[in-house]
Amino acid sequence: MTYTGDVTVGGPADVREAGELRVTKLAVGAMANNAYLLESRTTGQRLLVDAADDAPALLRLLGDEPLQRVVTTHRHADHWQALGDVVAATGARTAAGADDVEGIPVATDDPLAHGDEVWVGDMGLRVVALRGHTPGSVALLHEAADGSVHLFTGDALFPGGPGRTTSPADFTSLMDDLEREVFGPLPDATWVYPGHGADTTLGAERPSLGAWRARGW
Known about the structure:
By secondary structure, this protein is an alpha/beta fold. It contains 5 helices and 15 strands. The strands form 3 sheets. The chain has a 7-stranded mixed sheet with strand order 1-2-3-4-5-6-7, covered by helices on one side. The chain has a 6-stranded mixed sheet with strand order 8-9-10-11-14-15. The N and C termini lie far apart (36 Å).
């Protein structure tokens, strides 16, 4: 079946394979958060993006195979409510943006900075700081061997605009980071996996950048 990224809480996961990357997307919790299980198809090593909620559902998704790491995209509670239980069950290392670590009640093994690389077997994910939704919000970028580009944005970028900010300065910070680090260097075909709801591409969102700046949210 063709991957669409359309998932609902209580429904099945959606799976796509691109080069060495396998992405499994599951919606969990009262806020319909997206959790993404990333697997290297060559080594089998795995990383979970946002242990957001519903630890039993996430652990069923993980099954009996080891989990190497959980990356929390940002400090908001709906993105880490299952983190403690998942780490306790799997022994996975934890990672999050360094400036958000103090807001996550599960110890962070690996504080992340812009430009860091997170490795899952032979599969590298580059850390992209997208500051504004929270001070330490991070995205993960993977450029697959088949030429496809995959960006896991947490709540920094959705279909229709950037994530919520609470001040003009935070909005400007987030838009500046998005334009400089995402829309500037990455191609239109880049697939965007957000923290809630449907996926999108940079090409679908790029024409709206000026409108987002003008509206201020």
